[in-house]
Each structure stands twice: as structure tokens, then as C-alpha cells.
Fold this protein.
Amino acid sequence: GVAEMTTNSKSIQDNIHGIIEVPPLCVKIIDTHVFKRLKSLCQLGVTHHVYPGATHTRFEHSLGVMYLGGVYCDKLKVNYPDLISPKDKLCVQIGGLCHDLGHGPFSHLWEGFVRKVTKTSWSHETASIELLDMVLELNEEEVRAANLTEKDIIFIKELINGILPGKQGLEGRGQEKFFLYEIISNKITDIDVDKWDYFLRDCHGTGIKNKVFDMYRLMDNTRITEDPWVVGRTRLCYHEKMTSEVQDMWATRSNLHLKCYQHRVTKVVERMFLDMLEKADNYIHVSVEGQMFTLSQVHTDPRAYTNVTEDWILGQIKNQSDEGLEPAKRLLDRIFRRRLYRTVAEILDVALEKGKDLSSLEEKLKNISEQRYPNNPPDFCLSARLIKMGKSEENPVKKCIFYKKHKLDTHGDPKIPAEFILSEKSIEKRLVNAPEKTRISSIFVFCRDADCTEEARDSTRHFQQTFFPENEISFIES
């Protein structure tokens, strides 16, 4: 079983969590070319063009999520020894380790690139599951030694992706163990160890000082209870004194989005990279056993996909002599020499949805600039900034289950009596620092030309007055 294998576990020194114990099967997964690829993918994509220290990779983040998933299981096991088996913990750790296995070069930018070119809704989670199959096949012996069943492997995939394609519900674990699905990637409240690790790591890498959200205190004050809304399903719930702690977590996330992930210049550089990848797409090929794939198609073959890294793509653009690559080369040169696209303006409080295609708005702006300046129209592109606290419009803290301190806190019984569960109104009363706004959304207007001209400003003003007359516009002198 799991216990006999502890001899080949490993200790790794992590710069955020200190010493991390890695179980044997996880060691084997880490030591594959598929997983090692994460060492050459920056966690924050192109953000290091704004924050020079943000060059940390998906590799160390994945180790951190594996570690925190294991820590959370151990802490819960103290109060609920019968609800978490060693196998459950191992599956949660593998889920944490492999949750980002499918990320492409330049992080989320790759998803945007593939979706734009192929007109599909491909996501990195889909690739994570394909690559998880690959690493488990490479380690069949160890998978057997750890007694992982087909059901366990389904469970690990569900930890990464939720309900699997073509399935009606979760199959890896029953409703009585549903709380395990909230640890790595929480599809209900969005409170999970994935976020906790990247908060710490990204603040460390960028140097952004954030109100320190105390995840260990939150873990120590977590209980398991029956879901008040779904009979028989177990959920994680937090002590009532943790409402502000949970609120701080969301404040930390919004702050990082504003100052880092969706910083205006990060958005500019991302847009330049997106244009560059589109221009390079048909001229860079990855071949696997005689089959050729363009950049936007490599995700369709896991073997091709694992061979593509950020430096390799940039090297291909810089070093190949194909004339078709000239436009991409020029863009890369502009990025290196800091001749970035100019920001003309930001249109504030635009009602945007995530993933909404901006290309129709870009088209409208292009038409305006061509009508007004037929001889020399400014070359525009748009980028959206959308920061939400959770999946919906309301404060996500209200989606959490909080319990009142009570005498019946018996160990091992995952049922807190209903009268000790806080209502939404009670949660609201306890929030010390609830934000006025739970979403920020705006559109940046960028101009690809070297200078931001009066024509560009005039076209943008006209665009805003035509399509967003109620919205405030802020012109940016850049």
C-alpha cells in the first residue's frame, strides 16, 4: 500500500514553504520530461517585462500546490480521521502537482492565441488531463505500487477539471467525500490552495507587498459539514471568526490582478506577443514522427505540445531566416527595445464578460478611423481588463459556509447542526472590510503605431461617444 513506499520519498527545499516532502509517485511524475517542461514556462507569462523579478515558473508553483494540498488533508484528518484515507491524500497531492501540467508557453496568453486562431474554446485544463495520462503511462509500475485504481485516476482528473467531458457528475469519490474536491480547485467558492500558493509566490517574485492573508489560520479553523443546500454532500466550512480572513484573500487577489496580472503595461506586452504569435504561426513548425504542426495546432498532439517552450519559440523567431517571419521578428525587436504599442485611452466601467470577443469592437473602431482618416488611419487594437472577486457578481464570501462556535464540536462527526451555520445576512454583518465594488471592467485602446497621434485620440473619442456614450474615458499620455 501507500505506507510501504515511503522509503523513496524526497525532501525538496522550496523558497516559499521551506522543506517539502514529496511522496514516491510524485517524485516519479516530477522526473519526467512532460513535467520538467514546466521549468521553462513562466508562471506569470510576460509579466517579467513589467516586474523584472517575476520569472518564477509553473514548476515550483505546482510543487507548492501539491504540498499545501497535503497539509490541508493532514489538518482535516486530525478532526476527521475516518474521512481521509492515505490514498485520498495522495490523489489530492497528485492533483495539486499536475493541475497546471497543460499550460502553454506564456501562460494564459497561449489559450487566448489558440482560441483566436482556431476559433475553438480549448483550455489548458483539457491539456492537463491528456498530459496526466502521459505521465501515469510513463510510470505504470509506480502507479501499481501505490495501488491507484481507475477510479482514483478519474478522481485526480476531476480534482483538476471538475466533471469530466461526457459525464453527468463526479465519479471518483462519493458525496460523503465531496469536500476533497474543494481543496485544489474549488469550483463552488473559489477558495483553494492553488490560489494560496500563487499569492505568496507572485508577491515574492514581483515584490508587491500585500496584506498577508493567513492560510494556515484558515486551515486550522476549517471543519467538514453536510452541505446546507445539497443533502448528503460534505463541504468545507470555516469558523465565523474567519469571515474577514476570507475577505482579505479576495482583496489580495483583486490587488494582484490590478497591480500585476492586468497591469496596463502587462496588457500592452501581452497584446504585442499575441500579434507576434499570430504572425509567426504559419512559419514555425513542430514535427513529431513525420507529422508537422503549426504553433496554433501543437495542442492537438501531446507529444508535439510538450516540445514547445517559450525560449524555443522566441529562438525560432529570432534565428530562422524565413522571410515570412520578418513581421514577427520586427515585433519581437520592438518588445526588446521597449518600443511598445501606445496606450491611447481607457474606457471605464464597460459591462464586459470574460472571454467576450473584442474583435467586433476592434472592427468598429477600425471603420471609424478609416472613415475619418482614409489616407493614414491609426492602427488600433483593444484589450479588456476584467477583475471579478468570484465567479458571479456578488461578494463570493457569501457563498462560503461559516459555523458558529458551539459545544457540540465533536471530533469526527461531519455534521454541524443547522442552527450553528451562519445565514447570508449573518455573514454580511460580520464583514469588516467588504468592498463597495466586486468587479472592475474597462477597455484599453492601444495604437500599434510608434506615436500616439491626435488622429488616434480623435478616432478613440468618436468611438467612445458612438458606442459607450455613458462611460467615462481617460486619455493616457504615453
